[in-house]
Design a protein that fits this description.
Blueprint: H1 2-87, H2 90-99, H3 104-112, E1 124-131, E2 137-144, H4 147-152, E3 158-164, H5 175-183, E4 187-192, H6 225-236, E5 239-249, H7 251-262, E6 269-273, H8 279-284, H9 289-292, E7 302-308, H10 316-328, E8 332-338, H11 353-365, E9 374-379, E10 386-387, E11 390-395, E12 414-421, E13 426-432, E14 434-441, E15 452-456, E16 459-464, H12 470-480, E17 489-493
Helix pairs in contact: 1-2, 1-3, 1-12, 2-12, 3-12
């Protein structure tokens, strides 16, 4: 019995061993199958990840190529507009844009884009040469922030300050102030040297050629040294056009007032130092209407004027009257009177003292309002045609002399005032001695998807929808070459009242 049991146990043991081996074989098979499946899954996963990465990379390449093509396209459109600005051949520009299949929207986007200088900006101080519209050349002192600050402001841009020296001097007078401005890291400063007035030009302020007036700043000329200095700086540095200011001492103070009042849309702020609105006021005691009326153009400028109460060369009175009048027009004005101080105003023009430091802060901190809802512009000649989105297209002209040798008739004041009514998508005009007004439609103020209305003289002169067009974009660009002052469309109307 015992022997049978032992045999039975042996048989069961053998069966158990066989069963165990069978289970082990199945487990190994299952393990191998699972491993193979896992391996295949990982391979598929890796292959999928590779394909996904390839797709992402391909998409990135396509997007990068598209961006590069868009940049190249915009650069080509900008080049066409720049050539038109120089040559003035509208038909040639329109033909080139047609060949490029460019729409007005394409051109507008290209011109409104901020463009970096072709070469890396140069930090520190240097002296360059510029040429004005009369072919005269002069020295331009440039003071720029450090390389670190230039890099920091490469995207949002830097401010720019134009500095004008006084009679008998040169840009050396303004170098200390220029360096103090550049040291803030916020702005580039440029200081041209004045030259003798070209034949047939100047004299806007009663300045006779020759004699003690060995040089003077041109006021009306659109390619004067101060304006060419701005163009030069913008070609060399990433200048923000919303942050261009101007300041000057004595003769430079006169230049500061007069250049900015003729072209208020170029500047955000002005700082005349021991200057005045008109030399004629010093000689005759009263500013002429041709100059005093220009203060209406300065309502959007911020003004910081500095004058000594004991100035024997350029008296305080005219500056004081100009600032008071601008305040009456609701302009933003501060007149800093330095009690008992003479013409040199304690070196403020060199950035010295508390007032000098305040001057630097003022010039480096202001911004232009480039899409104002209310624009007023006064002009006394065709060299100055308007500001922002408003232009004098035709004006009443002085009567010609009736006989040889007869004195010329006095100039005629032309004035336009325009207000944007956003709620009604309209512009309301008032005028004086203007027979044709051009109103560029600023799409940041008015909705071009709706009808636009232009009223003048108490009547509707235009009502309808306006589509962006290439001529409007090109001509607005040429008149200012400013990415914030280029517009998609314009309307021309006769603003006179008819009875």
């Amino acid at each position: 019995m015992l022997a049978r049991n032992e045999k039975t146990d042996d048989r069961r043991g053998a069966e158990d061993a066989e069963s165990s081996q069978s289970r082990s074989g199945k487990s190994l098979s299952a393990y191998l199958c699972a491993s193979l499946r896992a391996s295949a899954f990982h391979v598929a996963l890796e292959r999928g990840a590779f394909i996904f990465a390839l797709l992402v990379f391909s998409t990135f390449l396509v997007a990068a190529r598209a961006r590069a093509e868009e940049r190249a396209s915009r650069a080509a459109l900008r080049a066409i507009a720049l050539e038109y600005s120089k040559e003035g051949d509208l038909e040639k520009a329109l033909s080139a844009l047609s060949q490029a299949n460019a729409s007005a929207e394409d051109l507008l986007a290209a011109l409104r884009e901020r463009v970096s200088p072709e070469k890396d900006p140069v930090p520190g101080d240097r002296t360059l040469e510029i040429e004005d519209g009369n072919g005269r050349k002069t020295e331009l002192f440039v003071a720029a922030p450090s390389a670190e600050q230039l890099k920091k402001h490469s995207q949002e841009g830097l401010g720019l300050v134009v500095l004008l020296h006084g009679l008998g001097g040169n840009n050396g007078q303004m170098r200390a102030l220029a360096k103090a401005i550049a040291a803030t890291g916020e702005c580039v400063a440029v200081a041209p040297s004045a030259k003798p007035l070209p034949e047939g030009e100047g004299g806007e302020d009663g300045v006779p050629p020759g004699g003690m007036f060995i040089h003077w700043w041109l006021y009306d000329n659109p390619r004067s040294f101060p304006l060419e200095a701005i163009r030069k700086a913008r070609s060399l540095y990433p200048i923000d056009p919303e942050r261009v200011a101007i300041s000057g001492h004595s003769m430079g103070g006169y230049g500061t007032w007069n250049i900015s009042l003729r072209r208020p849309d170029v500047f955000c702020a002005i700082a005349p130092l021991a200057g005045g609105l008109s030399r004629k006021a010093v000689i005759g005691g009263q500013e002429p209407e041709e100059t005093r009326s220009l203060l209406e153009n300065g309502k959007l400028l911020e003004v910081f004027a500095v004058h000594g109460t004991k100035d024997p060369i350029v008296p305080l009175g005219p500056d004081e009257r100009a600032c008071k009048r601008l305040e009456e027009l609701e302009g933003k004005v501060e007149l800093r009177k330095l009690e008992g101080i003479g013409h040199m105003i304690e070196g403020v023009w060199a950035g010295q003292g508390d007032t000098g430091k305040d001057l630097v802060r003022f010039l480096t901190s202001k911004r232009r309002e480039s899409s104002p809802e209310h624009v007023t512009y006064v002009s006394w000649n065709e060299k100055t045609d308007g500001a922002y989105w408003l232009r004098i297209a035709k004006r009443k002209k002085p009567m010609p002399p009736k006989a040889d040798g007869e004195e010329k008739a006095p100039p005629v004041k032309a004035r336009l005032e325009a207000r944007v009514d956003r709620a009604r998508n309209r512009i309301v005009l008032e005028s004086e001695n203007v027979s044709l007004a051009r109103v560029y439609v600023d799409d940041r103020l008015l909705d071009l998807s709706k009808p636009v209305t232009v009223e003048a003289g108490g009547a509707v002169r235009f009502e309808g929808k306006l589509a962006p067009d290439l001529r409007s974009v090109l001509e607005s660009w040429r008149s200012r070459q400013d990415e914030r002052l280029v517009y998609p469309a314009f309307v021309e109307v006769d603003p006179r009242k008819f009875h």
